[in-house]
Amino acid sequence: MVVFAPHNVIKDPPFTKLDMLFCRNLLIYMETELQKKLMNLFHYSLNAGGVMLLGSAENENSQNNMFSAIDARLKIYKRSASAANTELMDFPISFMHTMKKSSESIKPVKVTDNIQTLADQLLLQRFAPASVLINADGDILYITGRTGKYLEPSAGKANMNIYAMAREGLQNELPGAIRKAKQSSEPVKLHNLKIGTNGGTQIVDVTLQQIDKPEAIKGTIIIVFNDVADIPRQARRKPKTGNQKSTIREQELEIELQRANEELQSTREEMQTTQEELKSTNEEMQSTNEELQSTNEELTTSKEEMQSLNEELQTVNIELQSKVSDFMVANNDMKNLLNSTDIATLFLDKELNIRRFTDETTKLFKLRQTDIGRPFTDMVSDLKYPDITRHAREVLRLLVFKETEIEANDQRWFTVRIMPYRTYDDRIDGLVITFIDITKAKKLETELNNTIVLLREHNLL
After folding, report:
1. What are the backbone dihedrals phi and psi of residue 92, each rounded to the nearest 5 degrees, phi first?
2. Distances (CA, A) of 431 to 130, 317, 340, 367, 388
3. CATH of 125-231, one of 3.40.50.2300, 3.30.450.20, 2.40.50.140, 2.30.30.40
4. What's the order of all strands across the beta sheet hosting 130-134?
5. Helix (H, G, I), strand (E, B) or coil at 183
6. Local structure of residue 110 (DSSP, 8 states)
7. 3-class DSSP assignment, residue 393
8. pTM to 2 decimals?
9. In this predicted model, what pLDDT tens digit does every residue of 219-265 receive, in sequence order?
10. How far is residue 439's CA from residue 266's CA, in Å, rounded to a whole number?
11. Of residues 380 and 324, which shows the higher confidence score?
12. Residues 287, 288, 290, CA angle at the centre, nearest 5°?
């Protein structure tokens, strides 16, 4: 078990019979004389062979070899079995005596005290009845006078609660009286309570009242104890019949019976109030239950709707997957068709950005898949066609296709056809440019023209 407690090594009495003592980074803030006194105190607190651990910047500063070093670098020391210490041990209580002596040597300046304050203090100390101030949970906040005859510490863990500290004869009466005091601002009085003291009994009157003012202690309850010399009874005379002791006993029994009836009546009232509260709580619980049932039905309906919606989404998802599959098949067919024609085809949007191209187009333009989305005008071409951008914009403006024969840098010839890109709903959404290789036709045309010229020169045509 580990116990944590605030402790002042200078003022509080020391712990004793310790096997290990940790004191790190404390001595460096103290003077040498005080450090020596604390070393004597630590030696007294440790068992023979006990270990003391200091901070890295601290040293063992005792006299007469009270401690021996186990590890000087780590500041671990062992208490010596016996130490020749002839000096009087300076416990913290002796520190206080020294301080008191020094303070007594200084004569205080006389100050005129308030007579009313002195009188109030005198009344509280000598003539006021014993009392305690408690909170709503019964915890004692303040004690006035000597309350040992009415309260005693309970065995076990310290508990400053009025219910735990009340003596015999007061334990059964206090709970009901405190409940009454909480419910009313009028004082609640308990007369002629017989409280068990050490070896005897004491007759006591107890007064309880809830505090309304001042604001700082509002809601607390003060309990005042008044000793009673004897139980009130008729003038002392011999009764005509019976024994005097039996008459006193009967009076005590009557008082206890009356008190029991009062407590029973109070308990009945509390039970009636509790029953009404339970009834109200039951009605609220029933209303809450109905609301929860309605909410449950709504959630069930929502669950069914969500299930139906989920089924619809699954159906739509299947349809979309089917359409995506069809689209991929159509896309693959279109791609294979365009590539099988061996015609370079380039698709542009309205801003002349590249949308798609066939494999043959890469032989005329330096294109890669990463160029999709880039402007067509930024591409390097092998064609001797500087007006291709102007012609493309003109086709977009007039919506009339344009066809031109263009020569490439490697003496190849192409028929460049620029056409508007029409969607399924007849909307213009860019351009389609095809590049048809007519190199063979151009060579045949050139050879034919040369043959015609040659025939005319020989008058054969």
Report:
1. -55, -30
2. 107, 34, 21, 17, 12
3. 3.30.450.20
4. 140-144, 130-134, 221-228, 200-210, 188-197
5. helix
6. P
7. helix
8. 0.35
9. 899 999 988 876 554 444 444 455 666 787 787 788 778 878 877 87
10. 120
11. 324
12. 65
